[in-house]
Design brief:
The longest helix has 20 residues, at 74-93. It is built from six helices and no strands. The protein is mostly helical.
Length: 94
């Protein structure tokens, strides 16, 4: 893996997972017991995070640590996003 790729993958996954849940950075930071600015740096791939931090993030999302570093299938991710948007639109119509 090229230098910094794991950090970029983590940044992308944390941001996508956070947005999929409709959470602000503040909400995730509180759930993971991290400072909001530190979380922002993670999402911008500016932080080399510790294993403890990965465990906190994974715990906040209810997933395993390896899931934070797993490359996402773009088609599956797109389908998840479309489903989330559709569900939110349906709720607004009710």
């Amino acid at each position: 893996m090229a230098e910094g790729m794991a950090r970029k993958l983590l940044a992308q996954n944390v941001r996508v997972l956070r947005l999929m849940r409709g959470w602000s950075q503040e909400t995730l930071a509180e759930a993971a017991e991290l400072d909001r600015s530190y979380l922002g740096d993670i999402e911008r791939a500016r932080r080399n995070v510790s294993l403890d931090c990965l465990e906190r993030l994974a715990g906040a999302f209810g997933i395993l640590v390896p899931d934070l570093l797993r490359a996402q299938d773009p088609a599956a991710l797109g389908a998840q996003l479309l489903s989330k948007i559709s569900n939110e639109l349906a709720k607004e119509e009710d």
